Amino acid sequence: MAKVNLNLELPPTFHDEFVAAWDIVNPDLEVVARGSFLDRRSDEASLPPGKYWARVELPNNKRESRPFVVAEQDVDLAFEIKTRSRHEWLGWATLSEAPSAMVERARDPALHDLWACTWALGGDDWTQNSVANDAQLIQDGSLLQLELAPVPDRLCALQLGGNIASRFLIVPPQGIARVLISASVRESGPGSETDARPDVEVTVSFANSVADHLARFLVAGSPSAWEALDAKLIQSEGMALLYGKRGDPLGAAVAGYILMQSASSPPPLDWLRNLSEWTPWLADGPILSAYTALRSGKRSGAHECTEQLLKASERGYPVLRRGIDVFLDTVRLLRSSKVDLPAVIEERCELFAAVRASSTYQTAFTTFYGELPSAPRGFTERPDTIKRVRSSATPTPRGPRHL
User: 2-80 belongs to which CATH class?
Assistant: First the structure.
C-alpha cells in the first residue's frame, strides 16, 4: 500500500472557506476511495499498486481529473484552482466560463433592463417593501452580485423582472450570503434560434460553506451525485449543522434534508422539533418534523405530523425547494393512511403544487415564475407581455430598483 496525497492549490488571496469532494476510481471505473476537503487544502488515501484516476468536484459542480500510477512510493497530486474574478467567491461560480463568453454576455439585454424589488410576508399577505433598494450590488462582467438586508424574522420574496419572465426567490431573514445573477438564453421554440429570448439564472450561496456544498446535492438529486456524499460528510458535518440549529437554522434545514434522504442516518426527531419551535419563520422545520414523525412508526406519529404540517402551512413557503416535495410527499402518505386533513393543509398543497409546476430549478432555494408571490405561474408569457406588478393595497415607497 502507498499513500496518495491530494492537494488543492489556491491563490494566496483566496481566504474563503470551502468544501470540495474527491474520489478515486480504478480502470474498471469502481470508486476505491472517497473523501472531502472540509475547509482544508489537503487529504490522503492509501491504495495498492495500480493505475487510477483522481477526481475533485469543485463547489460550482465542475470536476477536475488526474490520472496517476501507484507503485511503492507515495504519490502527490495537486489540483490548481485559478480564479479570475476580483471577487474571490465569484471565481467558484465562473471557473467554467471563458473570458470571451463573459464579455459577450455582459452585453446581454437580459441584464440591461433588469429590476428587482422585495415582498415581505405578514400573516397571509405579501406586501412590497424597499429592502432591495438598499441592497449592495456589485457587477463583475456578466455577473451581478446582490447582497440583501432582509426584514428581521420575516420571510421575504425577491422579485426579478424586466426583459425576462418575472420570477421570485424566497429569502430568509438570516443565513443567506449572496445572490448571483447571470445572463442566459431561453429557447422558447423547438430548434428555432429566432425564438431565443434573454433570460437570467439565479444562484444562491450560503454563509456557511459546508451547508452551501450540501445544498448543491439537494439540487442535483441524481443517484450518482448523492454517491459523492461519503459517510464522513453526512455524519460529522450534517449532524454538526443540525446541532447548531439555533445559530444557523437554514444550515440545519439543509442538513435535515440530507440526513432524511440517507437511510442509515435519519435526523433525530427531537432536534427537528426544536428547529421547528425555535425558528417560527422557517416552514422547513415543521416540514422536516412532520415527515420524520410520520415515518417513526409511533402511534402518535400521524397526529404530530398533522400538527407540524399546520405550522408549516401558517409560515408560508419553505425556503428550500426540497421542502415543497417533502410537504407534498408527507400529505400523500397521510392520505394513504386515511387521515382527514384540515382544509388549510389541502389549500397549501394546491399552492405548493403550483410552485413545483412553475419552479425555475436553478437553485436549492424555492424559486418560481409569476408576477405575484402568492400566485405562481408557469413560464408561458412572451417577454413583451411581462409587466411590473405593484400591490394595489400597499404603495411601493421607491418602486423596483433597476440593477
Answer: mainly beta
